[in-house]
Amino acid sequence: MTLDARSDERVARGARAVGAGILVSRVAGLARGLLFARYFGDGLAADAYNAALRIPNTVRNLLGDGTISASFVPVYAAALARGDHDGARALANALLGVLLAVVAVMTLVGIAAAPWLTAIFAGGLDAETAALTTRLLRVLFPMTGVMVLSGWCLGVQNAHRRFFVAYAAAAAWALVQVAFLLIAGPRMPSRIELVWWLSWATLVGAALQVLVQAPQVWRLLRTVRPALDTHASGLRQVITNFVPVVGSLGFAQLSGLVDLRIASELPAGALAVWNYAVPVYLLPLSMFGVAGAMAALPEFAGGAVDDAGRRRIAAGLASAWGRVLFYVLPSAIALIAVGDAVVTLLYRGGAFGDEQVRRVWIVLAAYAVGLAAFATVRLFASTFHALQDYRTPLRGAALALPCSVAGALCLVWPMRDRVEGVAAIALGSGLGALVNVVFLGRELERRLGGVPWREVGGRVLRITAAAAVAVATTMAARTLLPAIAPRVDAVLLLALFSVTFLPVAEGLGLDEARALRRRLLRRR
After folding, report:
1. Which DSSP string corresponds to 120-144?
2. From residue 331, how far is each of 20, 288, 362, 457 by CA, in Å?
3. pLDDT higher than 80, residue 298
4. E strands along 385-489, which residues?
5. pTM (whole model) above 0.85
């Protein structure tokens, strides 16, 4: 096995570990979503909680997992590659000290500014919902600091190629809420009181997420001692990297806050429908797109950025991109064709009936249109980070933002009186992601000497053909076979899609299908 082949296998193995960890956390998150839908439906309490959670999540996303991994992992991994373990440890502790100081200040400011934050980012809510949003926001904003600590833990583990625990730990956050809703849901006298205490459970879950990762981080670093050591080797480089990464994510988060503002102007229930759809579309994006990008980052960052290094990265990018699309494209097609089965399986019951299923499916299908573009942007951006180029992803994000917002505003206007108008936000986001893919792809061609557009394009055609056969088979079965029960029907349809897609894909010569079948047989 050549060095490139070993490297590619490590990326594939790392991606599977990341995907498995994300699957655990997303399943727990979907269980949380199922219970949330049962108790809150798409009413006032659901809108308030979702708006209050989105605002601190925006700050967390700016300073959390993706930012720390992108700016810290290449520098930390380089120190490990040089054998400077003491220097790497000192860098990790110095970064932890800086992060603690920053998030402490931001948390206090966020709690004090809760009414203004609600007015700015969710100003379209009615007075009662806005007041509840502000109350919940004051409880939830401290979660920002706790989740940034979780992002630091994840960065340390990623640099050491320890992926599973880092990503599975997020399940703790959801499981605390699941336990709370199971115990308190039937007993609380009102939905308002239930959502208030759910906010506290959400904060406790964030703390537990950090505690789950702590033992492995301690073993890797041996000493965890936060220090405001501004002279630690590599810290200035990490902070220098931090600025454009935060800028790139800042554009994405700004887009999300603009989307929140647009959604708050739509009829009541739009925010809830939007927030039921987002976790479902994030499942394949995280399991395959984010997993591929995060596994590739430490591997791509491990070598010198010379001509040989660029050729190695280009070959690794082609392989990783093919793997990502093999899973993301059929997922997107399935969400468009039989997304109602997915929504039924996850949410149907209690206050969540057929009309809610239909609304969420429409939004989910709109997100699925851009799913491959979203995943590709993550992989391309991770490749630039490995090359120590943080400005190009920033420029791409800046270019995508106006396209995304303009697309959402144009498309939402004809549907402004309908809850399903939030589908326009999803389509606008997909447009922005597509623009970003084209921009980053052209820049990668310049940096690496070529991007395998034709090779990947042929692979896309074969994946789409296999998925089309699977959709046709599934839709025929749906028409011809008698209905049993909504959830049973949903499971059967999704299983039929999967078992049809895999052999057709293998027959069309897709190596990923053959490798997946072999792994499944070995486990059997």
Report:
1. HHSTTS-HHHHHHHHHHHHHHTTHH
2. 16, 10, 15, 17
3. no
4. none
5. no
